[in-house]
Every structure is written in structure tokens, then in C-alpha cells.
Amino acid sequence: MEALEPADFERAARARLPAETWDFVQGGSGAERTLAANRAQFEQARLRPRTMVDVSTTDQRLTLLGSPLSTPIGIAPVAYHQLFHPEGETATARAAGRAGALMVAGIFASRTLESIAEAATGPLWLQLYWLRRRDALAALVERAEAVGFRALVLTVDAPRIGRRLRDARNGFAVPAHIRAVNLDPSLMAASHRADAGSSGIADHAKEQFDPTLTWADLAWLRERSSLPIVLKGILTAEDARLAAEHGVDAVVVSNHGGRQLDGALPTLSALPEVVAATPPDLPVLLDGGVRTGTDVALAVALGARAVLIGRPILWGLAADGENGVARVLDLLKTELDDTLALLGRPRLADLDPTAVVR
Ligand SMILES: Cc1cc2nc3c(=O)[nH]c(=O)nc-3n(C[C@H](O)[C@H](O)[C@H](O)COP(=O)(O)O)c2cc1C
Ligand SMILES: CCCCC(=O)C(=O)O
């Protein structure tokens, strides 16, 4: 059967993936309240369509941190794409290129930065965690810049890993043959075994993530790279203001797909305060629960310049590799295009808060 919506890939992926990998993807932290709330906010919001507008051409193109994109729909950073397909991140990068979409590769990518860059035909950003081993971080930043990555995305909502009960119950550990190849194996060993009542992911973070990260540390990153710096995991006006004051180039409103602080604000609810607290020239992105073209339009109307998609990309990758990811992106782009036309707001710039009732 032909896939007509991203959810069709969700079913296909579930059928293919080992149960503990499925739980790792779909799960959130704690009682999964934030995971559910991300979706609930999109489901409850309503659009206010305008009529008698010439929508013979619609346009979802934009420029983000200097890079032209065909769509405001980008790929969120996710660890270990080889959990989902043997080609891993190179398949994802090729699909992003076909769609003219941004790809954010993760620090725990299972393919080298060099091979991802070679596969990519569109803009790539690199996501970082604040590792205790700052020398490893510095080396990674240098490599990323050398092969053409265009921004650094520092994830700031993970001083430790949220309590993910599914992973703890499954004793989830990253299989030995799938590796975060851009980092020294000695830094990654804990990911590949799980202590009782924990997961390899949580144990690894406890060992390697530096929870002392504060605003003053951004200077260290600035010194090491001329690339734009993006902070991922901002949910409040206070932090948005601090990000702007510290010269950050963009922020991602994110609760890590409901995988970190359970009970944290859903991202669509946090977006307006973050947008209000940031200067107009500082791009605000959003991720968490974006599943349809309508969701993309809602986020853009409330001030997001672009959205990132996490789990649906992995569904496409698990179901059919590069072609699956390309199809998921294509479906979302088509849905957004239909939404812009039927809403009477044919360009992204036509989307503003008057398009939404919440
Ligand atoms: C399996 C999985 C792994 C993830 N790994 C990372 C990661 O390594 N770094 C990071 O910043 N975010 C990571 N995330 C969070 C995503 O970047 C993103 O914030 C989230 O998935 C967006 O929500 P969505 O899945 O509802 O679209 C991961 C998410 C999932 C589902
Ligand atoms: C230590 C790997 C963390 C991956 C991650 O961020 C996630 O699973 O959400």
C-alpha cells in the first residue's frame, strides 16, 4: 500500500524494528506527560482560513542562517541512525538533499562527519552535547567546519538523561556493532552495556556529559569556531533573552521530544513567549510532536522560522532507508503546501498569529 501520511511509515517501522529499539524511539521520560502534551497542543489548535486569496502559487522556501532551503521542515538531531537502517546518516543526508531540507546530524552519529558531508547536497548542522572531554569536542568542531557543516547546535536540556522507564525496563544498550564513530571508543563504552535499572544511554551520559555547563561556557565554543551557534532546548522567555544577550545565532524551542524533563511545557505552548523575548532577527525553531503539514503551519504562524522532525524521520529510515526519509519529507512538504493554499496564506511570510486560534 502506498504511504499517504507519515503515520503509514510508523506502522511499517514498528513491524521492522526490535521491540527495545522501538521503545527507545517512541518513548519519553517519566509518565510521558510532556511527550503526550506536545501532540495535544497541535491537535487542539485550530486554523482561521481566509478566502478569496490568489493561491495559484504557494511558496515554502526560506533562508536560514544564510542557507537557502526548499522547506521550513528540517531533520532533528538523533543519535545512531544505523539503529534504523544499515546506511545510517548517509541515507538520511541524501534524502534531506533531495527534499532541499536542513539536516542536523547528531554528535552520536553512527557514520563519520566526512561521509555524511559527502552524501549531503544541502545544508548540514552538527549537534553537540557538552562533554566533559572538551578536547574531543574541540576536535569534532574543527572536523565539522573543515567538511562544510554550517552551524553548531548545542543541546542544553540534557545535563543528564531523563528517567526513561521503557529503556530502563528493557535494559536498553546500543548494540556493539553500532558506534558513535566520530568519538573515541573509550568515551562511548558505557553506551554499550546497561546496569540493572538503567540504560546504556543514561549511564553513558552520567559518565561523559558535563552538568556544569552555564552561559559563560559559550565563550569557549565561540573561540573555537566561526560557525553560527544554535541552542537547542530553550522553553522560556528568560532563557531566550539570555541566549540573545550571549550572541547566540538561533534557538530551538524543544523539550527533546518529551525525553528529558517530564512535565515540561509542550513546545507549541512555549513558542510564543520565546518569540516575544527574542529580537526579530534571531531565528526561533521548534521541534516536538510535529507530524503534519498543519502542525508546521501552526508553528510557523506562532513565530517559528522552521521546525525539526525527529521520530517520523526514523520511521521513514527504518521502513525504507533513503527513499523512506525522502517520502516522509515529501509528504510533509505536500501537506504544508495544501495547508498554505487552503488557509489563504500562500507564503510563509503570510503566516502570523492571526492564523491560529488556541
Ligand atoms: C531516538 C531519539 C534519539 C535522539 N537523540 C538526540 C541526540 O542525540 N541529540 C539531541 O539533541 N536530540 C536528540 N533527540 C531529540 C530530537 O532531536 C528532537 O528534539 C525530538 O525528537 C523532536 O521531537 P519529535 O520526535 O516528536 O519530532 C533524539 C530523539 C529521539 C526520538
Ligand atoms: C547519550 C545519547 C543521547 C541520545 C538522546 O539525546 C536521546 O536519546 O534523546
Describe this structure in words.
- By secondary structure, this protein is an alpha/beta fold.
- It has one domain (6-47, 65-345): Aldolase class I (TIM Barrel).
- 42% of the residues lie in helices and 12% in strands.
- An eight-stranded parallel beta sheet has the order 4-11-10-9-8-7-6-5.
- Strand 8, helix 11 and strand 9 form a beta-alpha-beta unit.
- The protein is globular.
- Residues 24-25, 38, 76-79, 106, 108, 127, 155, 232, 254, 256-257, 287-290, 309-311 line the site of flavin mononucleotide (FMN).
Entry summary:
This protein is of the alpha/beta class and 358 residues long. Helices cover 42% and strands 12% of the residues.
Fold blueprint:
Layout: H1 6-16, H2 19-26, H3 33-44, E1 46-47, E2 62-64, E3 67-69, E4 73-75, H4 89-99, E5 103-105, H5 113-119, E6 124-128, H6 134-146, E7 151-155, H7 165-170, H8 185-188, H9 200-208, H10 218-224, E8 229-234, H11 237-245, E9 250-253, H12 267-277, E10 284-287, H13 293-301, E11 306-309, H14 311-343, E12 356-357
Parallel strand pairs: 4-11, 5-6, 6-7, 7-8, 8-9, 9-10, 10-11
Antiparallel strand pairs: 1-12, 2-3
Helix pairs in contact: 1-14, 4-5, 4-14, 11-12, 13-14
The chain binds flavin mononucleotide and 2-Ketohexanoic acid.
